[in-house]
Amino acid sequence: MKKVLIILLIVVFTFVSCLGINYILYDVVQISSNATHNRVNLVIDAGHGGLDAGTIGIDGTKEKDINLSIALILYDFAMVSGIPCFLVRDGDYLVYGETDDKSRSDLYNRLDYINSIDNSVLISIHQNHFEDEKECGMQVWYSPNDEKSKIIADNILNVTKANLQSDNTRLNKRSDSSYYLLYKAQAPSVMVECGFMSNSEENEKLKNTRYQKQIAYSILLGFSQFLAEEL
């Protein structure tokens, strides 16, 4: 099973790389029945939304919009690849039901949704910001509650460094209580800070659809390496 999945991912990555990742993945073979029986459900959280814009880019771009765009692309890639996948939000809104108390942070609702899905893994999409505009590159925070979280985080960052950000020297970090979802989630969980919107060059990349697809595919490949190890 591991060999089949690894070969599949290599073929898909080669194909998509040659096209500059301009197209959705085609004709990807479904994961075998054994993998489906022991399936891992990927939950994708696009950070912020609605009235909560998140960080603001150097040119006024809102983090919530980039988060959602990358999350939707990642969802499409995962589904075409045969990975069961769920979106915490698929539009520009905070996560509330019609009768929910709006004074209660939507983070509680996100956590409830994540914990409601059996055998789930959370990947939360965010962007970074820092007063020093030179700071750049992906960094991944991981949950302290499950050792698999660090494995997923390291896989994602290593793939991204190898294929997209060769000058990235950042290290992943263990979450503390300030990252509510990661700190409280029962499932293996990571938060991917895809880049710095305070860096003008990286901010332009993060707004570009082609680059968003490259980021999403790097995340997918890192996650898929974890699946290959787990299955």
Describe the protein's topology.
Layout: H1 2-18, H2 33-37, E1 41-46, H3 63-80, E2 85-87, H4 106-115, E3 120-128, E4 139-142, H5 147-163, E5 173-174, H6 180-184, E6 189-196, H7 200-207, H8 209-230
Parallel strand pairs: 1-2, 1-3, 3-6, 4-5
Antiparallel strand pairs: 4-6
Helix pairs in contact: 1-8, 3-8, 5-8
Structural features, described:
- With 231 residues, this protein is an alpha/beta fold.
- Helix content is 44%, strand content 14%.
- The protein contains eight helices and six strands.
- It has helices at residues 2-18, 33-37, 63-80, 106-115, 147-163, 180-184, 200-207, 209-230; strands at 41-46, 85-87, 120-128, 139-142, 173-174, 189-196.
- It has a six-stranded mixed β-sheet, with helices on both faces.
- β1 (41-46), α3 and β2 form a beta-alpha-beta unit.
- α1 packs antiparallel against α8, α3 packs across α8 (209-230) and α5 packs across α8 (209-230).
- The longest helix has 22 residues, at 209-230.
- The relative contact order is 0.19.
In short:
This protein has 8 helices and 6 strands. The chain is an alpha/beta fold and 231 residues long. The chain starts with a helix and ends with a helix.
Give the biggest sheet.
6 strands, mixed
Q: Give the overall shape, derived from the CA principal axes.
A: globular
- Average pLDDT, rounded to a whole number, is 87
Strand content: 5-15%
Distance separating the two termini: 7 Å
Indicate the radius of gyration in whole angstroms: 17 Å
User: What portion of residues is helical?
Assistant: 40-55%
Unreliably modeled segments: 18-37
Count of β-strands: 6
Q: Oligomeric form of this entry?
A: single chain
